[in-house]
Input
Amino acid sequence: MKQFLFPAALLAVILSGCSTATKTQQATKKISFAANPIVAHRGAFKKNGFPENSIASLRHAIELKCTGTEFDIHMTADDSLVINHDPHYNKLTIEKTTYADLIKTPLSNGEQLPTLQEYTLAGLKNNSATRLVFEIKPSGISKERALLVTEKVVHLVHRLGAAPMAVYISFDYDVCKKVKQLDPHAHVQYLNGDKSPEEIKAGGLDGVDYHYSVFQKHPDWIGQAKKNNIALNAWTVNTAAEMDWLLANQFEFITTNEPELLAERMKMTPASKGWKLVWSDEFNTNGLPDTDKWGYDVGGNGWGNRELQYYTKADSNNAIVKNGKLTITARKENREQNTYTSARLVTKEKGDWAYGRVEVSAKLPVGRGVWPAIWMLPTEWKYGGWPASGEIDIMENVGYNPDTVFSSVHTKSFNHVAGTQKTKGLFLGDAGTNFHLYAVEWNKEQIDFFVDDRLFFSFKNTGKGFEEWPFDQKFHLLLNIAVGGNWGGLKGVDEQLDKAVMEVDYVRVFQK
Output
């Protein structure tokens, strides 16, 4: 195929003509993009076993009414624009192979490797709700070739009347800039993750489409993007925990291989019920816990329960963040008059709340004598010392009864010292081997306790005063492992217990 070069000025004229030619067509097609953040990555291919980037996966994404469907564009040796994720197809380098040679091998469902024109036309058919997300792949041959591909893609989009449905993305920043040069009205998102939203805005682009881990490492970029009206997109998001975090942070787009799962998570996420994320720690920075978010209770005085541990401060042997998890470790070692060390983390300033939803994803320690807890105490002790000002135990577990987790409240009228505390246990046979979501929802009328979004215990406000309901003030969160004590050590401590570990995947706090 003969190669045509379009100088920028000439191409602008061509695009203008194309836009004029398609005005009538576009005017008759009412576009109302789906009101969800789901962008099907390489089409909706996985559940039904379609080939990635096939027309079948494209059509299924449109049938699912995803807000977008993404596909990857390369140019063959004879200048055909084709759709395939990798730079190789059937072990042939696309840029160095003719289209005729590439289509000798069909896709797994019998389709031939689609051209961009075929793919775009299929994407426009009976579609007024799903964006077509054109990913222009960098060239392995030269920058000039990548920019030529960009010109050809933008020209084709306008010639086919697809501009109102199009979003452009690329890992090549110069490609993104070229798209905006050719079509200032195009919506363009950058993929590489090395520029802040403010830099993207200064560069004239419209969105950041980064791997979700980039946003977890730079959480300030989320607010920065919203402040600067830069679209937020994250790829490739395939687990419920990742989806929930992005939904909680109100990402405009979420690119996924699992569009059906994301649709289900949208129905279940706190955001769908009116909760707004106000505080979180995803534990994605290795080292000691974030000092802006966490402090420590320190010491070894038995903590009122005859406990055996000494709580350390900023000691990586007892509290460390690594590989996306917070690990709290109780160790058998002498410290002052104590036979174990451990950590008791406490949320710092701005880490206290009156009412809301608090959720902690955790895997519990095992061993007779351990006593892990995820709980809350009042910040200002409005009604006096414990138990008058209250305590909220989101989750407690004791090692001699490993298959049951407990949730409780303590008040002046209801507490374990008087034998009147309000509590309930839930059988959970794998608390020490799998992560579970422990959560509380707290408002003026009641406190509800959940495990994996299953409500199993409620405590209601009787309206009889602070003696029964001191929960009208700010509380902060604590995470810790105790050893021994009145409850944890009720059946002794295993002499072979050298260490016990609690892992925390994330902490999220929502309010309405």
